[in-house]
Amino acid sequence: MNILFSSLSGHDQTQSQHYLSIMRRLGHKVFNFSVPASLDDPLRGFLAEPGFSPGINLETIIRLAGFEPDLYLYIEPKGLIPRGLGKAPFPTACILCDTHTWLEARQKQALFFDHVFLYHCNYLRFFNEHPDGYVHWQAYACDLEIFRPVGKERDLDVAFIGQLHPQTERAALIARLCDLYKMNEQCFYSQREIPSIYSRAKIVLNMPLADDLNFRTFEAMSCGAMLLTRRVNNGQELLFEEGKHFAAFDDEKELFDKVAYYLAHPEERELIATAGLAEIQRHHHLEQRVIEMLGAVQQKPEQVAPIRQMSPAQIDRQYAWLYEYWRLVEPGLDLASEARRAGRPWLPLLLSAIRSVLRKIKHL
Q: CA-to-CA distance for 31 and 15, rounded, in angstroms?
């Protein structure tokens, strides 16, 4: 397939880099584009990269790609949703991840696309603007060429990678574990560093922020560690079997009891870790997910994105919301000017751009 692909550029922590590698590995022709990434903090995975104006038109991108696209694919966060996407003469698709943190924003983004792929099956019911068969559950998975067991010695009792805000229950719990067991340093880890940490761990502890089936679930098992995660009905019970592929806990007491038990019973722990890795390798690797996703689009290529049925004024409002959500000032101002010249309502668009300015100032 010929694919136009956009996601956050210059960011080591986004999963889009793995999708890009695998699509190309599978032989697809991919034109990768996004907004510019600034040199915000290179130690946290941000790299300066060239990019395009967020207000660019789809026709311009197609000319730059140099081929007739078969698909436009967007993976959040903050790639590029070009103007004119609702008139694309080919299917469009998005992958939305953080439905558990700001559902309404994901619902609004979904309106731009024909196919919507969600990481979390427990949020499918909230996306009802599309016909049946165009909103899909696609759990995350790892590129097994990167996330795999490396090295031989598992010298860490427990590994944890995640945000630890001061004065939170989560931070206090990890501090207690650090006092009791040998753990990795609690700091930021880039994507390339995570496999080596998890490959050193006997147990990887996962503490999802809400009811999300997060990346750590798959990364831990892909690296051959025993996953210990919160017991949540978020799809993990459909993909894996507790006690066979992973261990789980409901509360703090069960967490500490499970850590102590499985460190004291290495044969049981290694049996679970081995079974988890094998299940990942058989059924839950990113190459398989990409093949299934592209197959779903090819099977239903109809152009059903809600934005395709909207009036020009309604489309203006959708883009105005998007630019405000991303705190993009210039595209919002350009949108208001364009609407004014065309005789469409423009004052609400200008107000949206002004709010973008205020939000940007607030976050400086």
A: 17
